[in-house]
User: What shape does this take?
Amino acid sequence: MPRMSRVHFLPWLVLTLILASVLTVLSQSALVEAAPVDAPLLGITPTPTSTLTTPPTPTPTSTPAPKDADSPIGQVDPAIVKRGEPSEAVPGEVVRFTLEVTNRGTDAAVGVVVTDEVSEYLEILDVTTTQGTVAIDGQKVTVAVGTVGPDFVVEIVIETRVRADTPAPLEIENLAILTADNSTERRARAVVAVANLALPITGNTERSSAVSWAAAAGLLALIGFGVWEGIASRRNRRTL
Assistant: This one.
């Protein structure tokens, strides 16, 4: 076999080198396409790209309306009123004390109790109530009313008599106290004036004046008639 000369071998060598370079470039391109984006390839570190994130939309919340400072929501307001009839009395006369228990709030008053220390100058005859139970211990009257709802009215009547030995004139003050489990104490007073039986009875002023003038006129007429009789008797004696 004849030996290949250097002149014929050189073109083949150049062609082989060119083919090797092309194959190397093609293989690198294939590696670039197959490698993940975030992995470093051939010593080249990819530049990270920023991702825009949309913030979540806040959910709207409703704001409660402010409450009025004067609003009576959740309020318990029991009240008691007391009056005595008649306002003026004499020993032996009957006097009635009327107590009205109400609740001006919006919630019920619980465990309402009314106590009344009746004066020693008054004799307790009877006690009635439209709600609850009554207990009498000496001069102390206790009424366990119970629960009183909003705008409800409980009426308590204490019937008494002015004692015969009551010194007069005198003012008798009667105090009633209301308590409740969920409220503060409430009080009510009533005053009755006791008059003396020896005091004159006052009536119609005009009628009294007329009676007085008639009595005075009668007395003057009687005196005048006596004087006239005396003068006439003296004249008759002189004539005889």
The radius of gyration is 59 Å. The first strand starts at residue 78 and ends at 85. Residues 173 and 191 are 4 Å apart (CA to CA).
